[in-house]
Each structure stands twice: as structure tokens, then as C-alpha cells.
Amino acid sequence: MIRVILPTHLRRLANTNREVQINVTAPITVRAILDSLEETYPMLRGTIRDQSTFQRRAFIRFFACGQDYSHVAVDDPLPDSVANGTEPFWVVGAMAGG
């Protein structure tokens, strides 16, 4: 099971807790996690990434093991600690403004 931490606005939309656990088929990548997350919580489709281009939305960031994975290739493997469920994969709503 992969652990995913969702920001408040997405957890409200999905009507779930801060942390969700989802089944993800290996290899464990950003794309695989998002595919499984959207399959498990279809109401999140289009909120994290664009539905037609599958590009990450501008104000959404991804973190794992204290590292920013927002700009890595979506098919690059994530750390083993995420794959084995020791560490969560974070979906973070970025802040903007002044």
C-alpha cells in the first residue's frame, strides 16, 4: 500500500482523511500513484493534473522523503521508502500571493 497525504481542499472533495492508502502497481512512480489515486477517488480527476494533457496543475506540488518531485519525469521511480509504505507521498497545494 502506498500512503498519500492530501491537502485540505482535495481531502474535502474526496471526503476522506488527510492520509489515504492506495494500491499501486509497480513500478512506483508519480504517474502510477496519480493514476491509482484518480481511480480510487474519481472526484479528484482534473484537480491534480490536467485531464487531457496529464500535466501537473500549476499550484500543485509533489514531495517524497523531504524532496520535491514536482519537476522530475513522472515515470521515474520514487524512493523505496515510498514504495514500501514507510514514507508517504505528499500532494501539496502550493501557496501564492503577496
Write the layout of secondary structure elements.
Elements: E1 2-5, H1 8-14, E2 19-22, H2 30-40, E3 60-64, E4 67-68, H3 80-83, E5 89-93
Parallel strand pairs: 1-5
Antiparallel strand pairs: 1-2, 3-4, 3-5
Description:
With 98 residues, the protein is α+β, with helices and mostly antiparallel strands. The chain has one domain: Ubiquitin-like (UB roll). It contains three helices and five strands. The chain is globular, with a radius of gyration of 12 Å. The termini are far apart.
Oligomer: single chain
Distance between the termini: 39 Å
Coarse structural class:
alpha+beta
Helical residues, percent: 10-25%
Mean pLDDT: 95
- Per the principal axes of the C-alpha atoms, what is the gross shape? globular
CATH class category label = Alpha Beta
Q: Major beta sheet, specifics?
A: 5 strands, mixed
- Cα Rg: 12 Å
H/E element string?
EHEHEEHE
Number of domains: 1
Q: Give me the CATH superfamily.
A: Beta-grasp domain
Beta strand %? 15-25%
Kindly report the CATH topology. Ubiquitin-like (UB roll)
The CATH architecture designation is Roll
Question: Reading side by side through the largest sheet, how are the strands ordered?
Answer: 2-1-5-3-4
Number of helices: 3
How many extended strands?
5
